[in-house]
Write a structure and sequence with these properties.
With about 55 residues, the chain is of the alpha+beta class. The protein is built from three helices and two strands, in the order H-H-E-E-H. The model has no long low-confidence stretch (mean pLDDT about 95).
């Protein structure tokens, strides 16, 4: 599981861009880890990255 900060580091984007991309609908949905914390499965982020590179 990757935190939003780790996702930003992996993709090389800012937090603002992360939230913009997340709202556009193409980005994998985060999973609630607790009431105030979300994370993304690493496999989902890597699949998204592969799709983006192939386009």
């Amino acid at each position: 599981m990757l935190s939003p900060r780790q996702v930003c580091d992996l993709l090389g984007i800012s937090r603002a861009t992360y939230y913009r991309v997340r709202e556009c609908g193409d980005f994998p949905a985060p999973v609630a880890v607790s009431k105030r914390r979300v994370a993304h499965p690493e496999a989902d982020i890597l699949a998204f990255l592969n799709r983006a590179v192939l386009q």
